[in-house]
Amino acid sequence: MKEQQTSMNQSSKDDRSDDQRKKDAELAERLSGLIEDANSKVAPLCNTIRKHIETMESKKEEDRDEQELIKQAKPPLEQGEKILNETHGAIKGADPPKSFEATPEEQRLAEALKVLIEEVGGTIDWARNKLDSFPKAKKNLGPLLDALGQPLTQIVGGVGMLLAGVLNLVGNLLKGLGLDGLFKSIVGATTYLNKGLDKIISSGLDLLGK
Fold first, then answer.
1. What span, in angstroms and rounded, lies between the C-alpha atoms of 104 and 100?
2. Is the pTM of this model over 0.90?
3. Which of 80, 138, 163, 199 is 20 to 30 A from 169 via CA?
4. H or E stretch including 16?
């Protein structure tokens, strides 16, 4: 992983002044704090969602109460959406720098974003697959999973507009975990792709290639 990061740094041009590099590092530090705080709150919620679904799945079909599952899973889904929306709002308030090269602060941001995608995005995909066995619960919880995914997409897009190169690092981290497909789908959903974010990412990792 260290070799990947070094290669990424060496392959990018950095035309920033020392003052601009300092500002970028401060921005990455601030964004890292926001996302790490979100991680500390949403990770337990994701675990709770998984636990409720797994518990219901372990029961015999005749003993399954999908209304109970809906009642249990709905609060953490709604709470997670609220946390991510608040995080996205805070990220939108940051000022974008003019250029990018990975610094230790930006590496930290990439790691925090990787955890967020792995926890929230991974749980959403996992829950969708599991809920295929619970049609009533899927009808009620499916829209909540979609709602939880929207601010995640916006957070990824927001970070990309502020420090686009960080997404290349995130992609490398998730690719090492076999989750590059998940990352690709999230990046593909963000409206920021219309502003050229897809070209920035694909030039570094070719994650958006067919």
1. 12
2. no
3. 80
4. none
Q: What is the pLDDT of residue 189?
A: 67
CA 11 and chain centroid, separation: 25
SS3 call for 93: coil
**Are 94 and 30 a contacting pair, CB within 8 Å?**
yes
User: DSSP letter at 131?
Assistant: G
- DSSP class of residue 193 equals G
pLDDT given at position 36: 95
Amino acid identity of residue 204, one-letter, is G
Helix (H) or strand (E) holding 72: helix 66-92
Structure tokens at 114: 């990787």
State the Cα–Cα distance between residues 132 and 178, nearest whole angstrom: 23
Distance CA 120, CA 81 (A): 10
Instruction: Look at the chain and count its residues.
Output: 210
Decide: 121 and 186 in contact? Cβ < 8 Å.
yes
CA separation, residue 202 to residues 115, 118, 172, 209 (Å): 21, 20, 12, 7
Spell out a b/e string for 16-47, using b for 16 or more CB atoms within 10 Å of the CB, else e: beeeeeeebeebbebbbebbbebbebbbebbe
Name which of 163, 13, 149, 143 is nearest 94 in CA terms: 163
CA distance 8 to 24: 17
Alpha-carbon gap, residue 209 to 184, rounded angstroms: 9
Our CA angle for 197, 20, 203, nearest 5°, is 25
